[in-house]
């Protein structure tokens, strides 16, 4: 599951604002990206957000999600190779830290 844009306007990734009408109102991850639901954010980029899981299944369990809401990673890859690369880059950076 992926999320919608919240970085304050269209930029390099073409993501929208918190009022983006393409985001389902019941998407928890979209609400976290919009900062409507609190999260322990560990890193972020203009296209992605990394935050700690509230019910970790390992000593370190961080979720890395794109800001754009898409049904899955294949949908993100089809929508924007740049956004997918941003997500993978952020995940690698978080894993290395």
| Percent of sequence in beta strands | 5-15%
Number of helices: 3
Mean of all residue-level pLDDT scores: 81
The low-pLDDT segments are 1-21
The dominant shape is globular
Task: Give the end-to-end Cα distance, rounded to a whole number of Å.
Answer: 24 Å
Largest pleated sheet:
3 strands, antiparallel
**How would you spell out the order of helices and strands?**
HEEEHH
Strand order of the largest sheet: 1-2-3
Number of strands: 3
Structural class: alpha+beta
Q: Percent range for helical residues?
A: 25-40%
What Rg, in angstroms, do the CA atoms define? Answer: 13 Å
Can you give a write-up of this model?
- Helix 2 packs across helix 3.
- The protein has a three-stranded antiparallel β-sheet, with helices on one face.
- It is globular and about 35 Å long.
- The N terminus is likely disordered.
- With 97 residues, it is an alpha+beta fold.
- The protein is 30% helix and 14% strand.
- It contains three helices and three strands, in the order αβββαα.
């Amino acid at each position: 599951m992926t999320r919608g844009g919240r970085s304050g306007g269209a930029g390099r990734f073409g993501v929208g604002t918190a009022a983006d009408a393409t985001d389902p109102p019941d998407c928890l991850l979209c609400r976290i990206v919009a900062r409507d639901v609190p999260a322990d954010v560990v890193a972020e980029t203009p296209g992605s957000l990394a935050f700690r899981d509230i019910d970790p299944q390992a000593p370190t369990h961080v979720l890395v999600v794109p800001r754009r809401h898409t049904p899955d990673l294949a949908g993100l890859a089809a929508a924007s190779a740049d956004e997918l690369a941003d997500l993978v880059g952020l995940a690698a950076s978080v894993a290395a830290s």
